[in-house]
Known about the structure:
Layout: H1 2-14, H2 41-47, H3 52-59, H4 63-66, H5 86-98, H6 107-110, H7 116-128, H8 143-157, H9 159-162, H10 182-193, H11 202-208, H12 213-223
Amino acid sequence: MKFALLWSAVFCSTVVLAGPPPTKQEGIESGQYQWNAQKGEKVEALKLKGDITRGEEAYEICGACHLASGAGRPDGTFPQLAGQHTTVLIKQMADIRAGMRDNPTMYPFAVSLTDPQELADVSAFIEHLCIPTTHGKYEGVDAAIQVATGKQLYEKQCLECHGKNGEGNKKLFYPVIAGQHYQYLLRQMTEIRDGRRRNANPDMVKVIKPYTDAQLVAISAYQASLSMPGAMCAKKK
């Protein structure tokens, strides 16, 4: 166990790839990509019941980057995972494994999971974790203005899919964004808008395409302020 954590910690600092990544599959820009095609190991994993105990063991190698709590890093280099829907986790890991999402840092870890059952197990463990209340937020001097502006934009076009409290939609594969780091949110939305996130939901691409950099900053600032009642970790006394 200690060796696995030490090895993964070294990996996170050096980003050594375990073999070549998969051949890139056709991305969203080609018009041939089906965002959530019901095929492959993703579908197999979704049909299985994940075991939290086995998932905790499988997650050990993930903890060096995403932390044992699933909190990720406040600077957004590694996202907050705790409390994320199993459907979203399984889809994203399957997409990385299949070459539909480009993430050379994550790829060696994703392919270390042996089969659809292990995908289901580690996802079940991550989903059961409470969402940390201390995460990376927008910290500019104009924070109140940015959050207020972002709230207006969010409620106009994002709320329907991601929910009032950033709870997402497990059935429809829309991710939890409550408790997510501001820098990570901003980076992902920018990449989706600019066509660099190849496995992005086409519906989201259409919504986000017209947004300016300033608008993305505001939306990210608001999203990073959201919390899910009943899902957040208990505050320390």
